[in-house]
Amino acid sequence: MLTVSISAPPRTSIRFRGRSFLALVLAPEAPLEQWLEQFDAWAAQSPGFFVGRPVVLDVTGLGLDKPALAKLVSDLHDRSVRLMGIEGSDPSTCGLGLPPSLSGGRSTGVADVLDAQAAAAAPAPAVARKQGDALVIEGAVRSGQVIIHPEGDVIVAGSVGSGAEIVAGGSIHVYGTLRGRAIAGTTGAAKSRIFCKKFEAELVAIDGLYKTADAMKPELRSRAVQAWLEGDAIIMAAMD
C-alpha cells in the first residue's frame, strides 16, 4: 500500500482584526476598605449592574504594589466584577493571574447595544442625528438599548424604556418618560443636568456620582424632574 501525505502550504501571514468594545471604568479611591464599603452599599441597590459588562480598573494615583493590586482584583471578583484590564498601574505589578495593563484609552462615539431577543420583538429603532455637539434621538429609546455620546448633550424626543441607558458627556434631556438609567457628565462636566418630563428612572448619575431608585424621593415619581450636582450630592427637584 502506498501512502501519500500532502502537507498544507505554510502560512505566510497571520490575520489580525480590530474590534472596539464599550467598557466601564471603575476608579477606586483611598482608603480602599472604605471605598469597598461604599461600593457594597451602592451595589446592594443596583444588583446585576456589572453582570456581562466589561470593566477596566483605574488605579491611577493609588500606588498599589502587586500584592495590594491582586487583593483588590480578588475583592472585586468576589463582587461579580470581571476586569478586562488595569489602567494606571506599573506594568511590573501586572503579571500572571492578573488582568493586563492598559493605556491609551479614549472616549467612544455613539453606541447602540440591543440583545438579539429584544431586537426580534422590538419596533424599528429611533433615528439619531447630530445637532451641533448634541445628539438628538427622534423617538423612543427601547428597553435594552444603550446610547452613548461623550461629546455633548443627549436629547430624547420620546421616552426611555426600562433597562435602557443614556450616557452623555453633557446633560440629558428626555421629553417623555425616563424609566431607564441616565448617566450625565461622564467627561467630568460637573455642571451637567438631567431633565425629564415624567420621572420613573432606575438610576441617575452626574460626573460619577450615582443615585438609585431606592434613594430617590417617592413624591418625584411621575413628575417633571431635573437633577444636578451640589458638591458631592445629587439634588433632584420637581419642575411642575
UniProtKB/TrEMBL annotation:
Q: Which residues form the Septum formation inhibitor MinC C-terminal domain?
A: 136-236
The Septum formation inhibitor MinC N-terminal domain extends over: 14-81
GO:BP terms for this protein?
cell morphogenesis; division septum assembly; regulation of cell division; regulation of cell septum assembly
Q: Does the keyword Metal-binding apply?
A: no
| Alphabetic keyword roster | Cell cycle, Cell division, Septation
- Quote the InterPro entries the UniProt record gives: CAP/MinC_C, MinC, MinC_C_sf, MinC_N, Septum_form_inhib_MinC_C
Q: How does it assemble?
A: Interacts with MinD and FtsZ.
The record's annotation in PANTHER family points to: SEPTUM SITE-DETERMINING PROTEIN MINC
Instruction: State the function annotated in the UniProt record.
Output: Cell division inhibitor that blocks the formation of polar Z ring septums. Rapidly oscillates between the poles of the cell to destabilize FtsZ filaments that have formed before they mature into polar Z rings. Prevents FtsZ polymerization.
Family stated for the protein in its record: Belongs to the MinC family.
Stated name of the protein? Probable septum site-determining protein MinC
**Species of the source:** Alsobacter soli
Its ancestry begins with: Bacteria, Pseudomonadati, Pseudomonadota, Alphaproteobacteria, Hyphomicrobiales
Q: Which gene encodes it?
A: minC
